Structure formats: structure tokens, C-alpha cells
């Protein structure tokens, strides 16, 4: 690598300054430990939250609920005040980060708020039977803070908290709506609904040009939920869910291919292939035929992938 | 490696570096184009998503073909099945050679799949052939791990595949674990291997693929050395359990050496990494350090777990901030060649991991049964990093 830098400088492709910097990195005279420091910071946030969870659980009697709730609130407020002070002005577009630790302390603050709300709800039960709504509150708060402070990490936390709220509320608040349907199925429907909401949100972000750079987070989470929910139904109603998964997976793959979004394309291809194989295996073919199916279809998919890739290169 | 493949690999390294320079806006589009022109690509490559899919579907197809042949011909002799598996595996290795050679494929997924599946069938075939030999289980395992070491090392050398090098390293240490004093063998093998592999993994005469393979085995040797010294592994007889069924060493007079090793290897590795600016040593030193701290908490009750976790998390945050400030306050934002500023790495990789971790740190959804007491108000759960946050 160092030889290549020297050659590129000699051929005047690189300037002296560029060559000097690249050469230092190539010769291992300069190393960035930014990724390690970020990992340390992020790991610290998660480990501290694990400790906070245990604190609330194990010291309920000794310290007292008010003291615990107050301490959590104070810690959360400390983090959020710090982030508010260090935040850049609001923008609907991507905003540059003002501090190395900004997003991680914001995440810590949001997690502490969530822990505090959960603790208050668990101890004082202000919401009664509607206790899962505290998750909805946390997800809305996290989404608002993510938008204000331009944090994709906190936005992904908001989405997962929203999904958790839907998962919990199925069993409690909407039992009457879903009566007659087993819990797994109702959870599946909720997951599909949740995924659809995320996909609509993603489309809205792009259409309105408001935090459009959050769109990939919502789109990926949405399709993972929808395809995962459909796949989870293959064991219960293979034909129905197989056909739905085939349609959805094929649709995702086609759209993603056109938009050159290859991680989504891979998700769609795998989903569609799993669906078609599940449908085929419904016929309970003998082992030879099943093996032949997997050999032939895998090779067909492989061939299609190579052709598709070649077309992309030509375009 | 074939000379043309090695040459293509060197060029690829330059193009990848140029992509990082462009990402960091250290060069412009025209400069990047000039670099790509100076170091052209003559290989057929696929991007990460296509490569992953190609790998999965090739592997699936190859296995299905073999199962189809077995279902049709129904051989009922293990020796015949073993021989067929070896023939199939060798054919796949030949197909890999054709792909890497005449078809000029690299980073395509299919050649990695044919190589790994092919070598897997060679090993499975060899295992089937030993069934009739009436050897002891230990002898069979030793023979198979020895064979795996050789074939994976040969594949790593020929095709420059890091996964093969890593598998060769794992097989080698598992082979040593079959010996009479496995822990001693691990230490005796790892200690001289580390400096040798360090030299080889930075040898300018080697193509980048070989250097990466050497680095993978170097990492494994470091892990093996730390595992051999680790106090928990020592007391549980982890290395010995591969053959002797958990022979514990808690009463061994050499136990203080394990305590010293658990305490000293992490800071030594991290310090060596920081001083010589070698990321592998730095990262493994940090990982070993975390493992040693967890081990310390396991043996010595310093404080309640919540205190340890909260203070430990806080200390990690404070350490990251202090280190960042210390490095940034140096001349040019660096100290002794270390900088906290991002250079040319791809930030998208870290972001995806961070977002996945944030989702994992979020609250867990539950759909309790009707009789579940947690249906009562207050059954919420919140906590990050695996916190048991049920109140």
C-alpha cells in the first residue's frame, strides 16, 4: 500500500500532502482509535443501563421507590440537559454532530427516561390496566428527541419501543378485538400492522423531505417485521402465508432491485425463496424430489442473481 | 495464490483505500477515477448483498445435489458414502480452482461456497472412512482435526480465503487439545506462533489476502493463549474438557500463573497494540480486559452487581471521554500516532451495528398468558444491555 501511495504521488495523482497522510496510515504511523472509543462509550451506556435495571429491581425495599424514581429522573435529566446544551440548531435535514459523545448521552438519557417511567408505572401503577401505554409514551418521546437532535440510533430505539408497545397491548388492551384468534396470530397481525406503519412513515419522511435520512431505518425495520410475521405463519397456514410471503418477498426484491437497495433485495429474495419452498414442501414430496427441488431452484436463483448483477453493471 | 489473483488482490487493496479516502473527502472524484484507472480490476466481483446470496444459494444447491445423488443411488456402506463424499469434495475444490483461475472470480460468494462445501465433504468423507477402522474416538478426532488443519491451510494458501485460514487455526488448536497436556500445548504453540504470525501478516511480499489470513490466525493464537491462562478456563478445565471431560485444575500448584496471566495478558496486549499501533492487539486487549474484569467480579465480591455494572458503565463512558480529550489535545489531534478522529474507515458499518444494539437495548414486548400474574399493572420491563429490568 505504501508503495502504491509513493507511485501515485510520483505520477502526480496524489499531492504531497495527500501522499504524506496516506503514507503515514499505510506505514502504520497513524491509527484512528475512534471506533474503539465509540464502542467503549456505547458499551458503557448499555452496561450502566443494565446496572440501573438491577438497582431498581434489587433495592426496592432498601432505598425506597421515591428515591429510586427520583435518582433515575435526575440522571435522565442530567443527560438530556447536557444534550440540549450541546445540540446544534434544529434542522429537518441531517445535522452535523457537535460532540463525540452527543448521541450516546442522548441515548442514555432516553433509556433512563424509559426505565424511570417503567419503574414508576410498576410501583405506583398510575395507568392501571393500561400500563403498556407507558411504552407508547416512551416511543413518542424517543421519536421526538431523535428528530430534534437528529439521532438515527434513538430513532431506531423509538421504533423498537413502538413495536414493543404493540406486542404488549395485544394481550391486554385489545383482547376483545382479537377474541377467537390465538395470541400468536394476533401478534402476527400486529407485527404486520406495525411494519406497515413503519413503511408508511418511511415513505412520508421521503415525500415530505423531513429527516429523509431516517428512512432506511424505518424501511428495514418495517420489512423485517412484515416478512418475519408472514414467515412465522408458515407453520400454521402454509398455503395462505406462503402465498402472501411469496408476493411480499418478491415485491420487496423487485422494488429494491430497481432502487439499487441490495440489503432489502437480499431480504426479499430469501423471503420469496422460503415461501416457494414451503409451498412446494406442502405437497410432501419424496426425499429425492425435495433434494432435486432445492438443487434446481437454488441454481436457478443463483443464475438469476448473476444475470441481474451483470445487468446492473451494464446499466 | 496464483500470481494473477495475487496481483488483482493488491490492486483491489489500493482501490479500496481510495474509496475510503474519497469517503473522507481527502481526494476528489477525479483523483479516485485516476487511481481506479491506475489499478484496474480484472476480476468478476459481487457486492456484499449479492455475494451473501450467491454464497447461500450455492451452498444450498451443492448440498442438495449430493443428497439427491445419495437418495437415488442409496449406498448402504459407510466406505462408499465416504468415498463419494471425498470425490464430490475434490470436484468442488477443482471447481473453485476454475472459478478463481480461468473465470477470474473474486469476492463472488460462489467460489467461497464451493471451497468450503468441498472441503467439508472431504472431511466428512474422511470421517466416514474411519468408521470401519475401529479407532478410538480420540484417534479419529485427532486424525480429522489434523486433516482439517492441512486442507484448510492449503486452501487458505491457494485461494487466499481468510475463512479457510481461521478454520485451519481452529482445527490446529483443537488438534492440540487432543494431546496429553493440552493447555501446555496451546501455550507452547501460541507463544512462538504469535511473533512469527505477526511478522508474516505484515510481510510486504505477501499479497493482502495472505496477510489477512495470517492476521486471522494470529488473532486465534492470541485467543488461545489467553484462554489457556484464563483463571475461569483453568478452574473449569475448559481446554482439557475437549478430551478428558472437564478435568478441573483448581488444586494445581500452577494456578497462580493463571491468575497472573488473566491479570497481565489484557493490559500487555492493549499496551503493545497502542504503542505499535496494531489494531488487532488493541481490540483483543480491550476484549480480554473486559473478560478479566468479569472474571474478577466472579471470584471477588467487590460490591453488589448493580453497583459494579453502574460504576463500570460510568467508568467506561468517562474513560472514553477522557481518552478522546487526551488524544484530541495533542499536536495535530494525535498522540504517539494515535488519533480519535475518524480516518478512512466506513462509518456506515458502525452505524448499522449501533442501531441494531439500540433496538436490542429497548424494552422487550411480552404477550403473557391469561393466568400470568404479570398481566397485572406494573408488569413493564425496561433496561439496556441485557438488564433484567422487571419490576
The DSSP helix count of chain A reads 13
Strand content of chain B: under 5%
Give the CA-based shape of chain B: globular
Give helix and strand order of chain B, one letter per element, not per position.
Answer: HHHHHHHHHHHHHHEEH
Give the oligomeric state: heterodimer
Number of strands of chain A: 1
Uncertain residue segments of chain B: 367-391
Helix-and-strand structural type of chain A: mainly alpha
Q: How many strands in all of chain B? A: 2
pLDDT averaged over residues of chain A: 87
Description:
Chain A is 77% helix and 1% strand. With 315 residues, chain A is mostly helical. Chain A has a domain at 37-173. Chain A is flat, with a radius of gyration of 25 Å. Mean pLDDT of chain A is 87; it is low at 168-174 and 176-180. By secondary structure, chain B is an all-alpha fold. Chain B has a domain at 309-338. In chain B, strand 1 (334-335) and strand 2 (338-339) form a beta hairpin. The longest helix of chain B is centred in the N-terminal third of the chain and has 26 residues, at 48-73. The termini of chain B are far apart. Residues 367-391 of chain B have low confidence and may be disordered. The chains are: A mainly alpha (315), B mainly alpha (391). At the A-B interface, helix 1, helix 2, strand 1, helix 3 and helix 6 of A face helix 1, helix 2, helix 3, helix 13 and helix 14 of B. Strand 1 (31-32) of chain A pairs parallel with strand 2 (338-339) of chain B.
Short description:
The complex is a heterodimer of chains A (315) and B (391). Chain A has 315 residues and is an all-alpha fold. Chain A is built from 13 helices and one strand; from the N terminus they run ααβααααααααααα.
Notable traits:
heterodimer, A: 315 residues, mainly alpha, 77% helix, B: 391 residues, two-stranded antiparallel ribbon, 1% strand
